[in-house]
Amino acid sequence: MPLEMRVIPCLRDNYAYLLHEPQSGRTAVVDVPDQAPILDMLAATGWRLSDILITHHHDDHIGGVPRLREDTGAQVWGAAADAHRLPPLDHALAPGDPVPLGAETGTVIDVPGHTIGHIAFHFPDSRLAFTADSLMALGCGRLFEGTPAQMWDSLTRLMDLPDDTRICSGHDYSKANAAFARSVDPDNPDLEARIAQMARDRDEGAPMAVATLALEKATNPFLRAGQGYLKAGHGKSGETDLAMFAHLRGLKDTF
Ligand code: ZN
Ligand code: FE
Fold first, then answer.
1. Count of alpha carbons within 13 Å of 125, Cβ hemisphere only?
2. How much is the pLDDT for 172?
3. What is the pTM (predicted TM-score) of this model?
């Protein structure tokens, strides 16, 4: 049985994700921007929180961890490499480590770039990946700590996941990301179709930060840095995919 998921808007534009494994009853939350909306969703579902999974050290992803842990007694999982700047961890994780959630087991993927200790959680049976501020819906995180090469490596690692994996990112930056994507990749019909669909979803109040990897590959400009036509359009023919990625990331920084 696949994991049940609830997407929880938090703060101004963050998302937390609640995951429930029905056989064992184990329930995890991915990131805790704020504990209140998560406690509300736990009350609404009747699920008992057992695990808190942390993607990276920024306050808008961990701010509610101490209180949520106190209220629920859940175990905290996060990157060992960042233990010095995360809330106290019950499970310090290295890349490739398993994260068991009842009948299903997730895997830790190292995705540095936005921050150095950023990790993603992949649940292959349920076709879910929680990428927070690494790969994002129609975008990728700003490079606060890492290099373009580190982020490009992280993105290519994520691109190796099955195409039907649902990528769950940490924010709704859909409007700004759509405007940027259109500016650098103006003749992409898949991108135009996605932007139109996003506008309909937004009107219905649907969450903006979940899409399949296949759709990201077709529309997310940062995953398209290897496309010849895109390089040509930016005068980068003959340059490496990494150079093209760095070019796009630089454009986004000042967009
Ligand atoms: Zn962040
Ligand atoms: Fe963030």
1. 13
2. 94
3. 0.98
